[in-house]
Amino acid sequence: MKNNIYPCIWFDKDGKDAAQFYIDTFGDGNITTDTQMVVTFELSGQKFLALNGGPEIKPNPAVSFMAVLEDKDELESIWNKLSDGGKVLMPLDKYEWSEKYGWVQDKFGVSWQLYFGEVNDDVHGQKFIPTYMFTQEYNGKAEEALNFYVKLFKNSKLDGVMKHQEGDMKGLVMHGQCVLDDYVIAAMDGGNGHDFHFSWGNSMYIECETQEEIDHFWNAFAAGGEESQCGWVRDKFGAWWQVIPKQLVVWMTDPELAPKVSAAFYKMKKIDIETLKKATE
């Protein structure tokens, strides 16, 4: 599964340990890049980036990964591994939306929703779905955010929105789903009772081929949001993105080029490809 969009998870210095834990837990995975700062790995063909950023930032349940599993025994086995040393957020049980479902924060702080369902029918063949919970001042913004993202990315569509029908959350999103450049993400409104919100702990990484692409995404996210260093930008709904040239990984893993490219890269907010190219000369 080749996508230009994939999740980045912030770890202390144990990104490789976490990657190997997820490969052992879910199976069908491998580590594809292993550097001191960045570890990339795949689960069922989907790419993840583990960033060894330090102890200041931690992932939290504002972004979780819904794993769609078609075998109940496999789901229970995975649940036991993820919950060992972690924290159960919703018990593994039968719910109105699934015969078997549970939500857990693992020992690395990463949150997973395990859902018994059909991968092809429910989520277009994508086993792991980044799921955003809009809380605090962003509660009630889930549907607006999904529509914003769909307009921004090519090959995109809104894939359905279910809303609460009663109570304090009536009219707000229980579960919404969209496809962004053939990559599925989901969202929900989470109410005002949670003590967490979007952070650098979980971001989405966008690989861009051209400066035009970088400008397109950066300018859209930064409008009403917040620009930060090294291609990080927060959109007006609070979610964090990294808008990065595709060539960066190649440069940063080259022992000769990496120091020169890094020196230029760390001075930037929005990334300028030409400046990075000149640094390689």
From TrEMBL:
Pfam families: 3-dmu-9_3-mt (PF06983). SUPFAM superfamilies: Glyoxalase/Bleomycin resistance protein/Dihydroxybiphenyl dioxygenase. This is VOC family protein. Residues 4-114, 126-244 form the PhnB-like domain. CDD domains: PhnB_like. It comes from Sphingobacterium phlebotomi.
